[in-house]
Amino acid sequence: MAGQEPFDIFVIGGGINGCGIARDAVGRGYSVGLAEMNDFASGTSSGATKLIHGGLRYLEHYEFRLVRESLMEREVLWAMAPHIIWPMRFVLPFHKGGIRPAWLIRLGLFLYDHIGGRKLLPATKTLDMRRDPAGKPLKPLFTKAFEYSDGWVDDARLVVLNARDAANRGAEILSRSRVISARREGKLWAVDIQEGKGGPVRRVTARMLINAAGPWVDRVLSNAVGKNQVHNVRLVQGSHIVIRQKFNDPRAYFFQNPDGRIIFAIPYERDFTLIGTTDQDFTGDPKDIRITDAETDYLCKAASEYFAEPVRREDIVWSYSGVRPLFDDGASKAQEATRDYVLKVEAEDGAAPLLNVFGGKLTTYRRLAEHALEKIGEAIGNKGAPWTGRSTLPGGDFAPTGYEAEVAALKNRYGFLSDRHARRLVRLYGTLARKIVGDAQTIEALGRHYGADLYEAEVRYLIEDEWARTAEDILWRRTKLGLNLSGTEASALAEDMQDLTARCVA
């Protein structure tokens, strides 16, 4: 990298916002570099509730612009990545004397149906829970519910596919590379990057720097850029628990808690139910984020208020937490802080500009990137027009409603794949599933079997094409097979990773 031409932009942060901006920018003709200090989506972007949604509860806080933009993005993103994004119906149980009156819920859902340009997603309807199967897992108190549409996303895969597409288009994408210093030198940024832990330090230059470090955005400003006493983001912890399947209905539940918060109970990875999220201020180091005992008790208690069969601690098979870097708008409660994003450019006296990205959410990442490109164009000159709204992410080049046809085509071509295996491959990789299976004629031809339906061919693909370097990268971000593999099987994969990486990236 030393001695190369300056990048037009250099992005710090490999979460959804950083990778989204890099992809949009390189697609317009900018030269782009990006550095992520860990694995892609290893922070906030894989700690979400994994929804592509309008944010029904944001209407209570009058965030109409954010809700409208989010609603409009649901079908755009579904068309971009129909393998990792798909529609989901949500059931909102209601009873007299509940936290919100029926008229308020109806009004919110009316707006939800009509302000976002909905075309393919079905409209809201009312359910009689005494007759509808959705009422079966719940307490008999809930005799009525509203059912509405939103979407589901594999969040970590959304990030890595944006990074992969950016790299395919010519961006230089660096994982496990920490920016240790960024200084203005005339009209350029000089950025020092360290590979791995204690690795060599390399310097690149760029016309503009993008700080999209998520929870670390203020720390980048303090430690790397050298600004003192910065405080732009409010860190809010959100935790989730995963239990064995609580219900076999494909719909999710939206539960309203007496304290005004809401939680979701969502079908997850075929055999499980995901319950979350919490909202509480966080003051520690984001890398140390863990679910607390109080959060665990809160989620179990909140879900048990609705389910006929209580949710107990011993039911939990996995938990995860994320730190949301919300723009600090002075809200008194964590759940009231804005989920909208804020973009701020610093370019004093003609010096090399810096764009800081605060806040944001999965659903609006593409629009955030477009707005960032407007700022970039104003600062260093425009290149190209907006293009991502009609694009597809790698593997997503099939119709939004074409998942079943893709599964059938894969099974027809590779008759040795089980239905479950084929479905999982299409869900993760879409049309690129064929690249993983390749010329194999038997299941044994896919190489070593690590457990569940994970084979060496898939591991090699993830190393070669998706920057996976550890078993955790594969089992908990690129896939969620950590839920299905035993400890012994996961250890076997971990033992093989170093040798496989050396052979795959040599």
Automatic annotation (TrEMBL):
InterPro entries given in the database record: DAO_C, DAO_C_sf, FAD-dep_OxRdtase, FAD/NAD-bd_sf, G3P_DH_FAD-dep
Catalysed reactions listed for this entry: a quinone + sn-glycerol 3-phosphate = dihydroxyacetone phosphate + a quinol
Gene3D superfamilies reported in the protein's UniProt record: 6.10.250.1890, Alpha-glycerophosphate oxidase, cap domain, D-Amino Acid Oxidase, subunit A, domain 2, FAD/NAD(P)-binding domain
A family per Pfam: DAO
Domain Alpha-glycerophosphate oxidase C-terminal: 388-484
Source organism superkingdom: Bacteria
Keywords, in A-Z order: FAD, Flavoprotein, Oxidoreductase
Enzyme class name: oxidoreductase
A GO cellular-component term linked to this record: glycerol-3-phosphate dehydrogenase (FAD) complex
GO MF: glycerol-3-phosphate dehydrogenase (quinone) activity
Domain FAD dependent oxidoreductase: 8-343
Enzyme Commission no: 1.1.5.3
GO biological process: glycerol-3-phosphate catabolic process
Cofactor: FAD
Family, as annotated: Belongs to the FAD-dependent glycerol-3-phosphate dehydrogenase family.
NCBIfam families (UniProt xref): PRK12266.1 (NF008899), PRK13369.1 (NF009906)
Protein name (Swiss-Prot/TrEMBL): Glycerol-3-phosphate dehydrogenase
Originating organism: Rhizobium quercicola
